[in-house]
Design brief:
The chain is an all-alpha fold. The chain has 3 helices and no strands. It is elongated and about 60 Å long. The chain is 72% helix and 0% strand.
């Protein structure tokens, strides 16, 4: 797994535990999970921002109205 053995993973876990403490680890994990979930959602959804200039919107809507008549 990425060239990292079980001993290295255990050492990293111990260092993280010493730095942040046992009470802070669930908060960090939850925040990381929410960040990953939001990133996946944002990357899979289409953009909702319409950046069409107002002049083109008005021209397009007037052309649509003339085609309907």
């Amino acid at each position: 797994m990425f060239g990292i053995g079980m001993q290295e993973l255990l050492l990293i876990l111990v260092v993280v535990l010493l730095i942040f403490g046992a009470n802070k680890l669930p908060e960090i994990g939850g925040g990381l999970g929410r960040a990953i979930r939001n990133f996946r959602r944002a990357s899979s959804e289409p953009d909702e921002i319409d950046i069409t200039p107002k002049e083109k919107k008005n021209d397009a809507s007037s052309k649509d109205d003339s085609n309907k008549a």
